[in-house]
From TrEMBL:
Family that this chain belongs to: Belongs to the LysR transcriptional regulatory family.
Range of residues in the leader sequence: none
Domain of life assignment: Bacteria
Organism: Shewanella surugensis
TM region positions: none
Domain annotation HTH lysR-type: ranges: 2-59
Pfam family, one: LysR_substrate
Matches recorded under InterPro entries: LysR-type_TF_proteobact-type (IPR058163), LysR_HTH_N (IPR000847), LysR_subst-bd (IPR005119), WH-like_DNA-bd_sf (IPR036388), WH_DNA-bd_sf (IPR036390)
Keywords: DNA-binding, Transcription, Transcription regulation
Protein name according to UniProt: LysR family transcriptional regulator
Length: 303
Protein backbone atom coordinates (compact mmCIF):
# COMPACT_ATOMS: atom_id res chain seq x y z
CA UNK A 1 0.00 0.00 0.00
CA UNK A 2 1.38 3.46 -0.89
CA UNK A 3 2.52 5.59 2.01
CA UNK A 4 -0.31 8.00 2.90
CA UNK A 5 2.04 10.75 4.07
CA UNK A 6 4.00 10.44 0.82
CA UNK A 7 0.77 10.75 -1.14
CA UNK A 8 -0.25 13.90 0.71
CA UNK A 9 3.21 15.43 0.20
CA UNK A 10 3.07 14.59 -3.50
CA UNK A 11 -0.31 16.33 -3.68
CA UNK A 12 1.16 19.32 -1.81
CA UNK A 13 3.93 19.61 -4.43
CA UNK A 14 1.38 19.56 -7.26
CA UNK A 15 -0.84 22.15 -5.57
CA UNK A 16 2.16 24.41 -4.86
CA UNK A 17 3.58 23.85 -8.39
CA UNK A 18 7.01 23.05 -6.99
CA UNK A 19 9.05 21.60 -4.15
CA UNK A 20 10.28 24.96 -2.81
CA UNK A 21 6.78 26.42 -2.42
CA UNK A 22 5.50 23.12 -0.97
CA UNK A 23 8.28 23.30 1.62
CA UNK A 24 7.24 26.82 2.58
CA UNK A 25 3.56 25.86 2.83
CA UNK A 26 4.09 22.65 4.83
CA UNK A 27 7.01 23.84 6.96
CA UNK A 28 9.01 20.76 5.98
CA UNK A 29 12.52 20.80 4.46
CA UNK A 30 12.56 20.67 0.66
CA UNK A 31 14.98 17.74 0.78
CA UNK A 32 12.58 15.74 2.95
CA UNK A 33 9.65 16.33 0.60
CA UNK A 34 11.78 15.44 -2.43
CA UNK A 35 12.94 12.24 -0.75
CA UNK A 36 9.40 11.24 0.25
CA UNK A 37 8.09 11.76 -3.29
CA UNK A 38 11.03 9.80 -4.74
CA UNK A 39 10.30 6.97 -2.29
CA UNK A 40 6.65 7.03 -3.33
CA UNK A 41 7.61 6.77 -7.01
CA UNK A 42 9.96 3.88 -6.20
CA UNK A 43 7.24 2.16 -4.18
CA UNK A 44 4.73 2.53 -7.04
CA UNK A 45 7.26 1.70 -9.75
CA UNK A 46 6.30 4.72 -11.89
CA UNK A 47 7.43 8.30 -12.43
CA UNK A 48 4.85 10.79 -11.19
CA UNK A 49 6.72 14.02 -11.91
CA UNK A 50 9.10 15.16 -14.62
CA UNK A 51 11.71 17.42 -13.06
CA UNK A 52 14.40 19.69 -14.46
CA UNK A 53 16.14 22.81 -13.22
CA UNK A 54 13.51 25.14 -14.73
CA UNK A 55 10.16 23.42 -14.54
CA UNK A 56 8.05 20.69 -12.99
CA UNK A 57 5.28 18.79 -14.76
CA UNK A 58 3.02 15.83 -14.12
CA UNK A 59 3.33 12.64 -16.12
CA UNK A 60 0.10 11.16 -17.42
CA UNK A 61 0.01 8.54 -14.66
CA UNK A 62 0.98 11.25 -12.16
CA UNK A 63 -2.09 13.31 -13.10
CA UNK A 64 -4.33 10.28 -12.57
CA UNK A 65 -2.66 9.48 -9.25
CA UNK A 66 -3.07 13.09 -8.09
CA UNK A 67 -6.83 12.78 -8.58
CA UNK A 68 -6.85 9.73 -6.31
CA UNK A 69 -4.81 11.63 -3.72
CA UNK A 70 -7.39 14.43 -3.79
CA UNK A 71 -10.21 11.88 -3.49
CA UNK A 72 -8.55 10.35 -0.43
CA UNK A 73 -8.09 13.81 1.06
CA UNK A 74 -11.79 14.51 0.43
CA UNK A 75 -12.75 11.24 2.10
CA UNK A 76 -10.66 12.11 5.15
CA UNK A 77 -12.35 15.52 5.33
CA UNK A 78 -15.74 13.88 4.88
CA UNK A 79 -15.02 11.53 7.77
CA UNK A 80 -14.01 14.49 9.90
CA UNK A 81 -17.11 16.43 8.81
CA UNK A 82 -19.33 13.48 9.69
CA UNK A 83 -18.11 13.65 13.27
CA UNK A 84 -18.12 17.44 13.52
CA UNK A 85 -21.47 18.01 11.80
CA UNK A 86 -23.59 15.15 13.09
CA UNK A 87 -26.40 17.55 13.93
CA UNK A 88 -25.83 19.87 10.97
CA UNK A 89 -25.98 17.73 7.85
CA UNK A 90 -25.25 19.55 4.57
CA UNK A 91 -28.05 18.67 2.16
CA UNK A 92 -30.55 20.11 -0.31
CA UNK A 93 -30.15 21.70 -3.74
CA UNK A 94 -27.80 24.45 -4.89
CA UNK A 95 -28.29 26.46 -8.10
CA UNK A 96 -25.04 28.14 -9.15
CA UNK A 97 -24.22 30.59 -11.96
CA UNK A 98 -20.62 30.53 -13.24
CA UNK A 99 -19.05 32.72 -15.98
CA UNK A 100 -18.51 31.00 -19.33
CA UNK A 101 -14.82 31.94 -19.29
CA UNK A 102 -14.15 29.50 -16.43
CA UNK A 103 -12.64 26.18 -17.43
CA UNK A 104 -15.57 23.77 -17.55
CA UNK A 105 -13.24 20.81 -16.97
CA UNK A 106 -11.85 22.48 -13.85
CA UNK A 107 -15.35 23.26 -12.53
CA UNK A 108 -16.39 19.66 -13.23
CA UNK A 109 -13.53 18.39 -11.04
CA UNK A 110 -14.52 20.83 -8.29
CA UNK A 111 -18.18 19.77 -8.37
CA UNK A 112 -17.23 16.08 -8.36
CA UNK A 113 -15.12 16.59 -5.26
CA UNK A 114 -17.85 18.62 -3.57
CA UNK A 115 -20.52 15.97 -4.25
CA UNK A 116 -18.22 13.22 -2.96
CA UNK A 117 -17.71 15.21 0.22
CA UNK A 118 -21.43 16.08 0.56
CA UNK A 119 -23.43 13.24 -1.06
CA UNK A 120 -26.80 14.70 0.03
CA UNK A 121 -26.32 17.82 -2.11
CA UNK A 122 -28.01 18.24 -5.50
CA UNK A 123 -26.22 20.68 -7.83
CA UNK A 124 -27.64 22.76 -10.68
CA UNK A 125 -24.67 24.49 -12.38
CA UNK A 126 -25.26 26.95 -15.22
CA UNK A 127 -22.48 28.60 -17.24
CA UNK A 128 -23.65 32.07 -18.21
CA UNK A 129 -22.32 35.59 -18.65
CA UNK A 130 -25.74 37.12 -18.04
CA UNK A 131 -26.14 39.34 -15.00
CA UNK A 132 -28.39 36.83 -13.25
CA UNK A 133 -30.88 37.78 -10.57
CA UNK A 134 -30.19 35.58 -7.59
CA UNK A 135 -33.66 35.96 -6.11
CA UNK A 136 -35.69 36.35 -9.30
CA UNK A 137 -34.07 33.44 -11.17
CA UNK A 138 -33.69 31.15 -8.19
CA UNK A 139 -29.88 31.10 -7.98
CA UNK A 140 -28.26 30.45 -4.61
CA UNK A 141 -24.74 31.49 -5.64
CA UNK A 142 -23.25 33.49 -8.50
CA UNK A 143 -19.52 33.44 -9.20
CA UNK A 144 -18.54 36.94 -10.35
CA UNK A 145 -15.46 38.88 -11.37
CA UNK A 146 -14.70 42.05 -9.44
CA UNK A 147 -15.01 44.92 -8.95
CA UNK A 148 -18.62 44.45 -7.91
CA UNK A 149 -21.40 47.00 -7.97
CA UNK A 150 -22.96 48.03 -4.68
CA UNK A 151 -26.07 45.97 -3.91
CA UNK A 152 -27.89 44.11 -1.17
CA UNK A 153 -25.91 40.98 -2.07
CA UNK A 154 -23.17 39.51 0.10
CA UNK A 155 -19.84 38.86 -1.63
CA UNK A 156 -17.06 36.57 -0.43
CA UNK A 157 -13.63 36.81 -2.03
CA UNK A 158 -12.71 33.36 -3.38
CA UNK A 159 -9.34 33.98 -5.01
CA UNK A 160 -7.12 36.50 -6.77
CA UNK A 161 -5.00 36.06 -9.89
CA UNK A 162 -2.22 38.21 -11.29
CA UNK A 163 -2.63 39.17 -14.94
CA UNK A 164 0.02 40.14 -17.50
CA UNK A 165 0.07 41.42 -21.07
CA UNK A 166 1.43 38.87 -23.55
CA UNK A 167 2.09 38.55 -27.27
CA UNK A 168 3.80 36.09 -29.58
CA UNK A 169 7.37 36.75 -30.77
CA UNK A 170 6.19 36.76 -34.41
CA UNK A 171 3.53 39.41 -33.70
CA UNK A 172 6.11 41.63 -32.00
CA UNK A 173 8.59 41.18 -34.83
CA UNK A 174 5.91 42.22 -37.32
CA UNK A 175 4.24 45.05 -35.39
CA UNK A 176 6.89 46.18 -32.91
CA UNK A 177 7.08 45.91 -29.14
CA UNK A 178 5.16 48.54 -27.12
CA UNK A 179 7.49 50.50 -24.85
CA UNK A 180 4.83 52.50 -23.00
CA UNK A 181 1.14 51.95 -22.18
CA UNK A 182 0.25 54.65 -24.73
CA UNK A 183 1.86 52.56 -27.49
CA UNK A 184 -0.91 49.97 -27.05
CA UNK A 185 -3.27 52.29 -28.96
CA UNK A 186 -1.41 51.24 -32.14
CA UNK A 187 -1.74 47.51 -31.43
CA UNK A 188 -4.42 44.89 -31.96
CA UNK A 189 -5.88 43.72 -28.66
CA UNK A 190 -7.66 40.46 -27.94
CA UNK A 191 -10.25 41.19 -25.27
CA UNK A 192 -11.47 38.69 -22.71
CA UNK A 193 -15.01 39.76 -21.91
CA UNK A 194 -18.63 40.02 -22.93
CA UNK A 195 -20.40 42.20 -25.49
CA UNK A 196 -20.49 44.99 -22.88
CA UNK A 197 -16.73 44.97 -22.24
CA UNK A 198 -14.87 48.09 -23.43
CA UNK A 199 -11.45 47.84 -25.14
CA UNK A 200 -9.62 49.25 -22.12
CA UNK A 201 -6.89 47.75 -19.93
CA UNK A 202 -5.94 49.11 -16.47
CA UNK A 203 -2.15 49.21 -16.10
CA UNK A 204 -0.18 50.18 -13.01
CA UNK A 205 -1.25 50.48 -9.40
CA UNK A 206 -2.28 53.24 -7.02
CA UNK A 207 -1.56 56.76 -8.29
CA UNK A 208 0.38 55.34 -11.24
CA UNK A 209 -2.67 53.49 -12.53
CA UNK A 210 -3.72 54.41 -16.05
CA UNK A 211 -6.49 53.18 -18.34
CA UNK A 212 -5.17 52.45 -21.84
CA UNK A 213 -7.04 51.89 -25.08
CA UNK A 214 -6.16 49.46 -27.85
CA UNK A 215 -7.53 48.47 -31.24
CA UNK A 216 -9.97 45.66 -30.53
CA UNK A 217 -9.28 42.75 -32.86
CA UNK A 218 -11.32 40.01 -31.20
CA UNK A 219 -13.56 39.80 -28.14
CA UNK A 220 -14.31 36.37 -26.66
CA UNK A 221 -15.33 34.98 -23.25
CA UNK A 222 -12.90 32.05 -23.22
CA UNK A 223 -9.38 32.38 -21.81
CA UNK A 224 -8.34 29.21 -23.66
CA UNK A 225 -9.39 30.70 -27.01
CA UNK A 226 -7.75 34.03 -26.14
CA UNK A 227 -4.44 32.27 -25.52
CA UNK A 228 -4.66 30.37 -28.80
CA UNK A 229 -5.38 33.56 -30.76
CA UNK A 230 -2.33 35.21 -29.21
CA UNK A 231 -0.22 32.17 -30.09
CA UNK A 232 -1.58 32.46 -33.64
CA UNK A 233 -0.12 36.01 -33.84
CA UNK A 234 -3.37 38.02 -33.91
CA UNK A 235 -2.50 40.51 -31.20
CA UNK A 236 -1.83 41.32 -27.54
CA UNK A 237 -3.94 39.99 -24.65
CA UNK A 238 -4.21 40.27 -20.90
CA UNK A 239 -4.13 36.80 -19.35
CA UNK A 240 -3.64 35.24 -15.95
CA UNK A 241 -0.04 34.20 -15.43
CA UNK A 242 -1.22 30.71 -14.47
CA UNK A 243 -3.06 30.30 -17.80
CA UNK A 244 0.04 30.89 -19.91
CA UNK A 245 2.80 29.71 -17.57
CA UNK A 246 4.07 26.98 -19.91
CA UNK A 247 4.07 29.23 -22.98
CA UNK A 248 6.02 31.95 -21.14
CA UNK A 249 8.59 29.40 -19.95
CA UNK A 250 9.06 28.03 -23.50
CA UNK A 251 9.23 31.48 -25.12
CA UNK A 252 6.12 30.96 -27.25
CA UNK A 253 4.64 34.00 -25.49
CA UNK A 254 6.47 37.14 -24.32
CA UNK A 255 5.44 39.31 -21.32
CA UNK A 256 5.01 43.02 -22.04
CA UNK A 257 5.26 46.27 -20.03
CA UNK A 258 6.21 44.43 -16.84
CA UNK A 259 7.23 47.74 -15.24
CA UNK A 260 3.50 48.57 -15.31
CA UNK A 261 2.10 45.85 -13.02
CA UNK A 262 -1.57 45.05 -13.35
CA UNK A 263 -3.74 44.88 -10.26
CA UNK A 264 -4.78 41.31 -9.52
CA UNK A 265 -8.29 40.48 -10.66
CA UNK A 266 -10.61 39.13 -7.99
CA UNK A 267 -13.31 36.49 -8.13
CA UNK A 268 -16.19 36.47 -5.64
CA UNK A 269 -18.93 34.13 -4.56
CA UNK A 270 -22.12 36.20 -4.27
CA UNK A 271 -25.34 35.28 -2.48
CA UNK A 272 -28.47 37.08 -1.36
CA UNK A 273 -28.53 38.88 1.97
CA UNK A 274 -32.30 38.44 2.15
CA UNK A 275 -31.98 34.98 3.57
CA UNK A 276 -29.94 33.47 6.35
CA UNK A 277 -26.74 31.94 5.01
CA UNK A 278 -27.58 28.29 4.34
CA UNK A 279 -25.10 25.65 5.43
CA UNK A 280 -24.95 24.34 1.85
CA UNK A 281 -23.95 27.77 0.49
CA UNK A 282 -21.28 28.19 3.14
CA UNK A 283 -19.97 24.68 2.48
CA UNK A 284 -19.74 25.26 -1.29
CA UNK A 285 -17.95 28.60 -0.95
CA UNK A 286 -15.51 27.11 1.57
CA UNK A 287 -14.83 24.18 -0.76
CA UNK A 288 -14.44 26.41 -3.85
CA UNK A 289 -12.04 28.72 -2.02
CA UNK A 290 -9.91 25.82 -0.80
CA UNK A 291 -9.94 23.60 -3.88
CA UNK A 292 -9.87 25.95 -6.88
CA UNK A 293 -6.12 26.54 -6.74
CA UNK A 294 -5.52 22.81 -6.23
CA UNK A 295 -7.39 21.89 -9.41
CA UNK A 296 -5.83 24.79 -11.32
CA UNK A 297 -2.40 23.46 -10.30
CA UNK A 298 -3.29 20.07 -11.77
CA UNK A 299 -4.24 21.62 -15.12
CA UNK A 300 -1.10 23.75 -15.34
CA UNK A 301 1.15 20.75 -14.60
CA UNK A 302 -0.54 18.35 -17.04
CA UNK A 303 1.81 17.20 -19.85
Amino acid sequence: MPDLNGMMLFAAVVRAKGFSQAARETGMPKSTISRKVAQLEEQLGVRLLQRNTRSLSLTQVGALFFQHCISISDELEAAKATIENTHNDVSGSLRIAIPVSFSQELIAHLCSGFMRLYPNIELDVQFTDNDVSLVGEGYDIAIKYGPLQSSDLVARLLFERQSILVASPHYLTTHGTPATPQDLAQHSGILLGTSRSAPIWPLGKGQAKTMVNFKKKVRVNSAVMIKQLVLDDFGIAMLSGSVCKAELASGRLVPLLQEWPIEAFKVYGVYSSRRQLATSISAFLDFFHKRFTHQESLQSLMM
